[in-house]
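Subject: Protein entry, chain in single-letter code together with its fold tokens

Area: Proteins and the way their chains fold up in space.

Attached in line: The record itself begins immediately under this heading.
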Amino acid sequence: MSLLHAVWLQKPAEPCLALWADDWQVAKPLQLHELQQVQQHPLALDESQLKAWLGKQQLLPEGHRGEELQLSLPTRSNGLPLMAGEVLPKQLEWWPWRVAALVVPAAKAGPWLSKLPLASGSNHCLGDELLWWSHLQRWVLSLIARGRWLPVVQNRQGGKAEARWEPLLNHEDDRRRLEDLANRMPAVILSASSHEATAIACQKPVAARQQVAAILAVLLDSQLRADQTIDPSKLNPLLSAWQAALASPTASLELPPEEGERLATATAHWRETVAGRMAPARALLELKVPPEGSELWQLQFGLQAEADPSLHKPAAAVWAAGAGNLQLGEILVPEPAELLLEGLGRALVAFEPLARGLEEATPEQMQLAPAEAFVLVRTATSRLRDVGVGVVLPLTTESLNNLFNHHDIDLPEKKLSKFQLLDLTLKLLRASSENTTKLDISDLIWMPLVHCWPAETQYDFVIIDEAQDINATRRELVKRLLKPSGTVIAVGD
């Protein structure tokens, strides 16, 4: 049985999708370290076989062309590459292999990916990475439908300017989806290079959020570009040229260099004001409860890792690093001071009282009046997160719902404030933790989520009974246990 695979070919002039397939067949073992050149993948279909098989499966894409690629793949010690789905052996190497592929331009890749199923059950000839591609394409369509994109101008080498459509990932849900797709991206997706050099060289690919964001941008741009219609009659020459470039396959902006520079600068400021730039960390605002005897809340500044919000450092450490690098766990953040300043500037748009804290050259914290802290907690937090600024609220606010979900307690509709109710709950929890070492079923659900423990096994199907009684904590547990292509079956009243 043949199995279809898809990799991303990051060509500077034309990034594209490349399809190849392998099949179960007998192959002769090789002595890898005696080889003088990259070998043909012994299990891969050749170009004619690949076309015929895809045609039979009704999966042959439009606009394809044949090309030989070099893939870095996990390989056994006997010199044979692993088939998809095989258990990784203890003795394993990454080794380059030549394969015949069908290269699909980005403009044709999007419609082709839209035809793929979101679950593996309906088509067993698709490799696992095709399901990842299918989910990525559905996200592209969602961003387009929700208007989560911006037209921008980018300067290229030689003074040329290009008009591009870029995804707008400032909403918290979209940023989380980016992290999820980056964490789940199969390494094989970035394993390809054009077969130009004959030297044996290989590097194990690494999944990263910047790479997923780059693929996302290419797919979104190509699909928006294909749907554009040009009507220059109501626009001035500058905007008319920009519109024409946004619809052109080449994206080339036909303007004098100074006009192109003007548009590039304006759109860069526009984008950064709305969503910031793609970076491994983001500005962080951390609210602290007032010390005893005071009514003023402390708002501390810092940087927070995008991939792991539990990793953050205060502004003092950021200013000390200056234009160098800052380490957040295993994440390296270049130019942290510039990143923090840029993020605080965007935060000011969503929370105006922040202006008082930005009067110094290297701000670290500020004080908020009770009314300002209330506004931050109730309304500004969501706006801040939507412009790419992290917010950490004190236990008395952000963790309130988690605590009540943990014990399946509904918040009563009484005049008792949430802060008073939480204070009582915390006292009971502390007293309980001091007098017992047992864990109940709520602890077993709640603790893995709080401590971000990864699920050892993920499932194709998760069945929920009595779904009307499920709470936010249990919903999150279901999401952690479900594969990206999995299905939830819920039964309830």
User: Anything to note?
Assistant: The radius of gyration is 26 Å.
